[in-house]
Write a structure and sequence with these properties.
Layout: E1 2-3, E2 10-11, E3 13-18, E4 21-25, E5 34-40, E6 45-49, E7 53-58, H1 62-72, H2 77-83, H3 88-96, H4 103-113, E8 118-123, E9 127-131, H5 138-143
Antiparallel strand pairs: 1-2, 3-4, 3-5, 6-9, 7-8
């Protein structure tokens, strides 16, 4: 169902001339003009299916893994940051868990430290229904 351009109600619409303007109006508002076409029924509902996709994600315990691996190699945060060409403050925040590294940075850490931070996760299929009710009507302007 779509909205009446005069009152905004959601119903079956007619094309009519109201005050010299062609509008799509409901059965209640068609009396204010001359009907030129019978009901217009449009479906604005879209169903979007998300297929099973595999997405790269970073493990939840990345901060502990990075810190333990760095310490086991005897590296300071400064040394590791210089080795992978990143800022020491960024590495510190990653080890604290306050920042989640990007996939690109996680891959750098994986290569240098020999760990596994990036895992592949499947996104389950879920139908999503969207309804478009954002159209403005003349009634919306009159009410304001």
């Amino acid at each position: 169902m779509v909205n009446c351009e005069l009152c905004g109600s959601e119903s079956v619409l007619f094309s009519a001339f109201v005050e010299g303007i062609k509008l799509r109006v409901c059965s209640n508002c068609k009396k204010f003009g001359k009907v030129i076409e019978e009901p217009i029924v449009k479906k604005h509902e879209r169903i979007i299916n998300i297929k099973n996709e595999v997405v790269d994600c970073i493990t939840d315990d990345f901060s502990v893994i990075v810190k333990n691996s760095r310490e086991s190699r005897g590296l300071s945060q400064h040394d590791l940051a210089n080795s992978i060409n990143e800022k020491e403050s960024l590495l510190s925040k990653i080890e604290q868990g306050s920042i989640k590294p990007s996939i690109k940075l996680a891959r750098k850490l994986e290569r240098f430290l020999g760990l596994k931070l990036v895992v592949k996760e499947k996104i389950a299929e879920a139908p999503i229904t969207k309804v478009n009710n954002s159209a403005l009507t003349i009634g919306d302007f009159v009410r304001k």
